[in-house]
Amino acid sequence: MPWIVSLSRRLAAVGSLALLLAGCSTSAATPTSVPMVSPEFTSVPPTPIVIVVTPTPPTPPTPPVVTAPPVVTAAPKAVPTAPPAATPKPTPTPPPALAIGLCTGAQLSLSITSWVGDPGADPIYAHVTATNVSSASCNMRGASEAQILNAGGTVIADAGSGAATVKSSDPVYALAPNGTVNTIVQWGNWCKAAPTQNLKVAMVEPFGLGRIVAPANGVAKVPACSASGSATAVSSEAWLP
């Protein structure tokens, strides 16, 4: 059969080719094998990487703002107040019978007419005059409380409140406007340093009727010290026309 012949031819050709290749490989020089050297590697352990993670605390929620409701204050009730008690007016004390009609300090003016006495004498005297400077008449009676004042107005000698006296036996002197009465003031035993000049004289009227002051009249004489350790003394006589 023709396909059998063809297959035989193909197998023969394949066998010849195999023998040819085998011969070639036998006659060729066998190559020298070169050993393969593997490079040495030093293993380095890996450096660990530490990552620190700090946890962030959570932000607390903002509390809601609570507004307190307004406090409503009730208006205080008006408490009726009792009307203030009326202050009783003081009943004026009637002046003593002996004081009726006497001149007050506001009606009078006082002046020093002269200082009398030798230097170093004890006592010395001041002659004074009271004048009615008001438009109404008034009376002078009895004696007044005499005082000696230094230039600054400070009292340095005082007869005392008991010196202002009015007795029923004292005569009454009517003083018309611009009318005058007179008295003499006696001052003694001055044992301190010389007072500041110019000296003044004052008279305090009885029954609280006032005080009148005479301005200085030149340099006043100062009494000598006759009793060391004793206080200075001043007095006055009763008023006379």
Features:
Immunoglobulin-like; 241 residues; alpha+beta; 4-stranded antiparallel sheet; disordered N terminus
- Reported by name, the CATH topology of the domain at 100-236 is Immunoglobulin-like
Distance between the termini: 209 Å
Report the order of strands and helices. Answer: HEEEEEEEEEE
Q: Shape, please? A: elongated
* Structure classification: alpha+beta
Radius of gyration: 71 Å
Strand order of the largest sheet: 1-2-7-10
Number of helices: 1
Largest sheet composition: 4 strands, antiparallel
| Overall mean pLDDT | 81
Can you put this structure into words, describing what you see?
By secondary structure, this protein is α+β, with helices and mostly antiparallel strands. It has a domain at 100-236: Immunoglobulin-like (Sandwich). It is built from one helix and ten strands. Strand 4 (145-149) and strand 5 (155-158) form a beta hairpin. It starts with a helix and ends in a 5-residue tail after the last strand. The model is unreliable at 1-5, 18-22 and 24-35 (pLDDT under 50).
